[in-house]
Description:
Blueprint: H1 6-16, H2 18-26, E1 34-35, H3 36-41, H4 49-56, E2 61-64, E3 74-77, H5 79-97, E4 105-109, E5 129-131, E6 135-139, H6 145-158, E7 162-165, H7 167-180, E8 190-193, H8 200-210, E9 213-220, E10 224-229, E11 235-237, E12 242-248, E13 254-260, E14 271-280, E15 295-300, E16 306-308, E17 314-316, H9 318-331, E18 335-344, E19 347-354, H10 360-370, E20 380-386, E21 401-403
Helix pairs in contact: 1-2, 6-7, 7-8, 9-10
Amino acid sequence: MKERNYNDFLEEAYNSIPAYVQMKKEEDEIYPILDRTWLLQNSQSVLSPQGHALFYQNKLMHGRTSGSTGTYMDIYWKPEDYKKSMLGLWWYRYHYYGILPKDKLCYFFTIQKDNDKMGEQNQGENREEIKKETELGFSKSNLTKERIHEIYEKMREFQPKWLLLQPSIALLLCECIDYYNLKSLDSVSYIELSGEMLTDKIRNEIRRHFHCAIANQYGANEFNSIAYECPYGKLHIMRDNVIVESERLTGQEEELIITTKTNTVMPLIRYRIGDYGKVKHQKNKCCPCKNTSPILELTLGRSNDYIICENGEKINAYVFIRAMDYVNNYTDGIVKQFQIVQKDYQRFEVKVVLEEECDTQMLTELFGEAVMENRLKEAQYHFRFYDRLLPEDRTGKLACFISEKA
């Protein structure tokens, strides 16, 4: 979709896609904002007429949002649209940092994914490692000091050129290097960080241990890459893939509103993603990197808390996201929302919203089986079922995990 045809695209969407037709009737706006909470109840109503046809022909890629905000949503793409949405990111990876798709990569995952289907997982399969010719992935479950050490040694043997990590995982690797007095991975020339807020403190800690280029990549499964950091520290909006607006709320905060430019079958238009920041258009002087795209300054974003153990050790909360992903794979997406609260070292409250009625005993057993962290195997999980879980007022997001022991 070319920029000059964007208004035509909007008109077509608001006159042919059920969700937008309904919103236009209900809201006194030309292009009303699409709310995530509303969309959770009506995700398939955002499919275009072509999208519906391809859906029933089983020709769409299907995935779900990661669950890192405690809320799942179905996402659909045409394979060619999905590839198109990734082109800009790959171009900048090469242009700025010399990274090509053929270069060896190490990364961490919550649950194993099918090779060719975006976001779909192999039901019932829990693997600790995925190895391909140019990729080596590790499960985020059971990340003890000992296992992190084992992973680091496997990375050293694999000799990756780059790492794709969340900041909290990168910090665990840094702690491992210090604890075991390990040498840096000399093969790594680039680390890409995504999925959580990246602070200067975390960036400096990672750079101190890895001595390589570091870039922040801001994205979401609903769109893929939204903004990418150049070597001069500016987060440039991926304008070939998305349009980003910011809407001022009370005080100085501005909420991000995002529109796809590549997904033609599930076009999210003016979508309230739940993150906060400012869009700065370059006017008189562009960035030294020569990228003229607007610059995004994030102020509040996604972050993950840690599970606190009685001995003071910390466990990344992704162990619970992975377990809930496993439950969703096994039950074909029965969990719509969840939030897990650590009440005590071995006692957790699991708040769940279900798509439909199910055997709740089976659900609790599935979850317990899927918690792969040994230190949490004997913990008590008290399930509570709700019709709806509301986001926290300030961030507009439902945190998937909260520790009351922190």
